[in-house]
Structure formats: structure tokens, C-alpha cells
Amino acid sequence: MKNFAENIIASLSQFNTTSVLAMVDYSATPSRLNTTNGSYSSGGSQFKKIKRFFRNSPTLPFIVVVVIVVLIGAVFITKSMKSHSTGQVAGASVQNNNTQMNVPKPLAQETLNKEFDFPLKDATGKVVSKFNYEILSAEEDNQIIIKGQVATAVQGKTFLLLNLKITNNFDKDVELNTRDYVRLIVDNSTDRLAADVHNDPVDVQAISTKYTRLGFPIDIAAKNLKLEVGEIDGQKQTIQLNLQ
């Protein structure tokens, strides 16, 4: 690396000498190149000092290495930002890109408009208000968008999606885990499934309404689908789904 630096300095020295000689050929005023007053020798002396500095500097190799590392890092980061990222969601493959995405129409859907009122509790468990939890509709899709990423169901799977409308009547902001209020029962199984696809915690501003979604990866052959809606430790209401 030291020899590399010396070669660069030698090239600069040759370029400097050539430039000065070129000035002799084209200068209209000979007095501007006065070798007797030391102006040329002074410039050469200064360049020699710079040359000796670079040749003898113990920090030069370190500086060169740092510059190379920074350049390599910048190239790597740029390529990483431009490349498409892929991930995994339960029952789905996820791909992110920078273009606007079009999701196909649902395979089947059903309008529900089922409303529920649930209490809002403070840190001590005291009920301070309530919020409205409405399941607008249910649908089956092979592709969904999760936080800007397109998720495609793997072979043999599809998504059951619930479109929700949350209304906060309290005069303060609230954060809700919407998936805590719904469980899915498939083909009369004893298992109660929680949503794998969600935007929780959902931040609902004071005296406002917010729309969000819940998603369940299910077998494409599943036929009998039921929802259980209610607080985790409260009574549940069953909704039979008939998607068409």
C-alpha cells in the first residue's frame, strides 16, 4: 500500500513538472517564470515536502483502508435498498416492492355488519368508557397487503379476512389489540384460532373511527367456518359464516 501511494505521488510530480514546462512554451511574459528568484525551486521544494509527508506518514495506510471500507459499505447499502426483500408470514410468502400493488378481487365474501360494545378499562381495571367493535364483512383471498407488502397464500392455503370498524367514543386516544376479540373455529374443531395477520396495536384517536383488518390462513378445503366474538374472559357470540 505504501508503494501504491509513492507511485501516485511520483505521477503527480511528473504532471507538475510537465505543466511548468508547458507554461514556458506558451507564456507571453517570460518574467512569470523566473528561475533566478527561486519561484520554481520554491514550488518544487513545497511539493517535495508534501511527497515526504505522504511517504513517511504512518497514518496513510490506515486512511486508505478506511476510505476503501466506506466505499464498499456505500455500494452494499445502495444495492440492499434497491433489491426486493422477501419474508414469511404463517401460511404465506411475502414480497415487498416499490410499485403500486393491485390485489385481485376476493374469491368469496359475505357482508356481516355485526356490532359489539366492549368496555375500556384503565390500568386498575376500572371501566372508564366503551368502544364499538363492528365486523363489516368477511372474505377469502389468496393475496393480501400487510404493511405495504404483498402476502401470497402458499399452495393449499388461502386467507380468511375480516374487515373491522372500530369507534372510540372516549375523549382520549386508545390502543387496542383487535385480534383479542375474535377466534375462528374451522370445521367444528375444538381449536380456536387467533388472527395471524393484524395491525395491532391499533391506535384510535379520541372521538374517532378507524378501519382495520384481521386475517387467518386457512386450508383451501375448509368449509364450515365460525367466529367467536367477545372479550377473552367474557361471554362469546358465535357467527356462522356463509361466504359466496
How would you concisely characterize the structure shown here?
The chain has three helices and 13 strands, in the order αααβββββββββββββ.
Description:
- The protein has 244 residues and is α+β, with helices and mostly antiparallel strands.
- It folds into two domains: 2-82, no CATH class; 92-240, Immunoglobulin-like (Sandwich), CATH 2.60.40.
- Helix content is 27%, strand content 37%.
- A four-stranded antiparallel β-sheet has the order 1-2-6-5, with no helix packed on it. A four-stranded antiparallel β-sheet has the order 3-4-7-11, with no helix packed on it. A three-stranded antiparallel β-sheet has the order 9-12-13, with no helix packed on it.
- Strand 1 (86-89) and strand 2 (92-95) form a beta hairpin.
- It is elongated.
Question: Key features?
Answer:
single chain, 244 residues, alpha+beta, Immunoglobulin-like, 2 domains, four-stranded antiparallel beta sheet, 13 strands, 37% strand
Low-confidence stretches: 14-42, 82-88
Instruction: Say what oligomer this is.
Output: single chain
Class of secondary structure makeup: alpha+beta
How big a fraction of the residues is strand?
35-45%
How many DSSP helices? 3
| Separation, N- and C-terminal Cα atoms | 72 Å
State the domain count: 2
The order of strands across the largest sheet is: 1-2-6-5
Main CATH class of the largest domain: Mainly Beta
Largest sheet: 4 strands, antiparallel
Outline, from the CA principal axes? elongated
Helix content: 25-40%
The radius of gyration is 36 Å
Mean pLDDT: 78
Number of extended strands:
13
Order of helices and strands: HHHEEEEEEEEEEEEE
CATH topology of the largest domain: Immunoglobulin-like
CATH architecture term of the largest domain:
Sandwich
